[in-house]
């Protein structure tokens, strides 16, 4: 049997230069590419598990920090109530009951109600109240007051009494609560705390309650859950789930039903392997300092392995695709260059035939021999081409440098406006200070450090800052009303889409028509499936159909702002043709414009826009 190497050499020598180039180039590149892909797959899969767990751990650390901030806020608010002088005097009075004059009780109610109204201005606090004797007439208020019988009727009342003997506060489990004046219920987690007389006797005089929405806790857990089939949840020492990430609801329900839901265990370290409901998980637990709550994260081993397999599959598909591309490109390049060489050889034969009186020996059958004889001429052309490319590249770099030099640093603007604000306050000019402060807020949100995406709440603040500035110009004649549900405020949108529309309402209304004494503008928003729909409406003079068409035509512009067409174009370029502006107007009755954007978080929208 012949030597395989010898057989390959014989086969290789019999083929043309085009085949030799294609085989040599493609085999070399494919071997290098496959080696790189194998090494890449090895290092990625080896480090992926550690990186995933590290990311999950950092997310849990951040969630723990946010949750402890919530608890600290609740305790801080409870301290404000506990040590309030008016509350202490009223509730420690021996006559604090319902046998007093109705007018006395009513004045007392107004005084105490201010205490709870003021503390509820803290952003994360949803409700605060105190339990008072049932015979006091305002014990039925339910918002800030409740009868002692309601406290004693709680299922966890005995547990509260037991813990209040040794602990400062007691945190309840989640509960559905009907708030007076509202048609729906809310799910709350509350702090219960015995209020004692601060005169030194420490006599119990009542019980206070401070509550936050469990949706706030769930929002934190959602952001810390980096898996699709795992769970991140809060559980107390009694085994009750306080809150959980949305994706882990089904898992927690299954574990709760079969009694295998993990709770706080001092022996468990970070990322300990656990077998739950027949599946393998890695569990991490973090104890909260201010409550008997434990933050637990469950990462399924199956999901880690599946994602590692997916990474390997992607690398394999990319490798096969790259091999196919390399082979195809190798054949095309080989064909291209050998064809060029043959044409060049034919031209050289023509020159050798007598046109330039250049003598040349008969060329060999190998294209490489032809290449050597034409190398000098090809080198000169290559030098010329390289020189042209060098000049072109230098011109491009010069243009890029000039563009970079033209960038504007907005910090000078902010610092100048802050300086105007302080100077105005020092000189007793509060209106100027307010204008400077509003203008700084307006441009800070407008520029947004060069980013396109802000939250809906920031966009509304941008409009409010603009209206404040304009009201100084129009003597407070502009009224702005906003009606945007709280759950929409954290969502993202591209910046400067509402302010130009409000500006149009002002500039084409009260600014241009002298007899109009006031301008009323309203901004509302609602959720429609996967979209957020804004409506900006004014009570101005309205527009005709021709004016509306002109407003949205490609050539229209607005000297006061971005222009309606600009906003519509930005929305369509960012989100697609299904999004943008829609106008409706009645002459003499005002104009309304609808803005539709997709409902996304700021992070999701930033990636989408990019």
TrEMBL record:
Keyword Protein biosynthesis in annotation: no
SMART domains: HAMP
InterPro entries: Bact_2-comp_sensor_kinase, HAMP_dom, HATPase_C_sf, HATPase_dom, Sig_transdc_His_kin_internal
Membrane as UniProt keyword: yes
Any one GO molecular-function label of the UniProt entry: kinase activity
Keywords: Kinase, Membrane, Phosphoprotein, Transferase, Transmembrane, Transmembrane helix
CDD domains: HAMP
Lineage of source species: Bacteria, Bacillati, Bacillota, Clostridia, Eubacteriales
Protein name, entry field: Sensor histidine kinase
Cell compartment(s), UniProt: Membrane
Chief subcellular location: membrane
Residue ranges constituting the HAMP domain according to the UniProt record: 335-387
Organism: Neglectibacter timonensis
Positions of transmembrane segments: 21-44, 314-338
């Amino acid at each position: 049997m012949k030597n395989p190497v010898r057989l390959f050499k014989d086969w290789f020598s019999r083929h043309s230069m085009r085949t030799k180039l294609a085989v040599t180039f493609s085999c070399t590149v494919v071997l290098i590419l496959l080696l790189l892909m194998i090494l890449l797959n090895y290092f990625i899969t080896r480090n992926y598990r550690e990186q995933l767990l590290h990311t999950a751990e950092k997310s849990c650390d951040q969630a723990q920090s946010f949750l402890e901030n919530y608890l600290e806020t609740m305790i801080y608010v409870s301290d404000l109530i506990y040590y309030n002088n008016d509350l202490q005097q009223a509730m420690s009075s021996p006559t604090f009951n319902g046998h007093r004059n109705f007018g006395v009780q009513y004045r007392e109610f107004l005084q105490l109600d201010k205490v709870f109204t003021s503390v509820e201005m803290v952003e994360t606090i949803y409700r605060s109240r105190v339990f008072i004797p049932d015979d006091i007439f305002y014990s039925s208020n339910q918002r800030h007051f409740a009868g002692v019988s309601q406290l004693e009727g709680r299922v966890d009342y005995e547990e509260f009494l037991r813990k209040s003997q040794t602990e400062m506060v007691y945190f309840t489990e989640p509960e559905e609560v009907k708030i007076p004046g509202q048609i729906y219920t809310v799910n709350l987690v509350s702090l219960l705390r015995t209020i004692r007389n601060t005169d030194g006797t420490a006599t119990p005089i009542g019980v206070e309650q401070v509550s936050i929405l469990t949706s706030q806790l769930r929002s934190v857990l959602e952001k810390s859950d980096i898996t699709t089939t795992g769970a991140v949840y809060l559980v107390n020492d009694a085994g009750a789930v306080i809150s959980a990430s949305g994706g882990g609801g089904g898992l927690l329900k299954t574990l709760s039903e079969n009694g295998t839901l993990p709770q706080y265990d001092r022996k468990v370290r970070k990322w300990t392997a656990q077998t739950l409901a027949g599946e393998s998980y890695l569990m991490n637990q973090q104890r909260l300092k201010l409550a008997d709550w434990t933050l637990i994260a469950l990462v399924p081993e199956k999901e880690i392995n599946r994602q590692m397999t997916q990474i390997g599959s992607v690398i394999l598909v990319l490798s096969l695709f790259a091999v196919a591309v390399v082979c195809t490109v190798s054949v095309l390049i080989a064909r291209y260059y050998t064809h060029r060489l043959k044409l060049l050889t034919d031209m050289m034969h023509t020159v050798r035939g007598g046109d330039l009186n250049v003598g040349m020996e008969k060329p060999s059958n190998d294209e490489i021999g032809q290449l050597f004889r034409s190398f000098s001429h090809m080198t000169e052309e290559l030098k010329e081409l390289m020189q042209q490319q060098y000049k072109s590249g230098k011109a491009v770099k010069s243009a890029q440098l000039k563009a970079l030099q033209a960038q504007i640093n907005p910090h000078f603007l902010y610092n100048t406006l802050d300086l105007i604000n302080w100077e105005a306050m020092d000189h007793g000019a509060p209106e100027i200070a307010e204008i400077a402060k509003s203008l700084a807020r307006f441009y800070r949100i407008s520029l947004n450090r060069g980013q396109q995406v802000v939250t809906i709440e920031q966009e509304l603040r941008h409009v409010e800052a603009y209206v404040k500035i304009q009201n100084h110009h129009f003597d407070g004649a502009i009224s702005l009303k906003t009606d945007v549900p709280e759950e929409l405020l954290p969502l993202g949108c591209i910046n400067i889409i509402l302010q130009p529309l409000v500006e149009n309402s002002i500039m084409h209304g009260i600014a241009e028509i002298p007899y109009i004494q006031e301008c009323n503008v309203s901004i509302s928003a609602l959720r429609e499936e996967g979209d957020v729909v804004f409506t900006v409406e004014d009570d101005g003079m309205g527009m005709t159909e021709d004016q509306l068409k002109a407003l949205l035509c490609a050539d229209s512009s607005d000297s006061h702002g971005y222009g309606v067409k600009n906003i519509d174009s930005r929305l369509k370029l960012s989100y697609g043709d299904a999004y943008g502006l829609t106008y409706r107007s009645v002459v003499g009755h005002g104009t309304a414009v609808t803005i539709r954007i997709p409902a996304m978080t700021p992070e999701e929208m930033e990636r989408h826009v990019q």
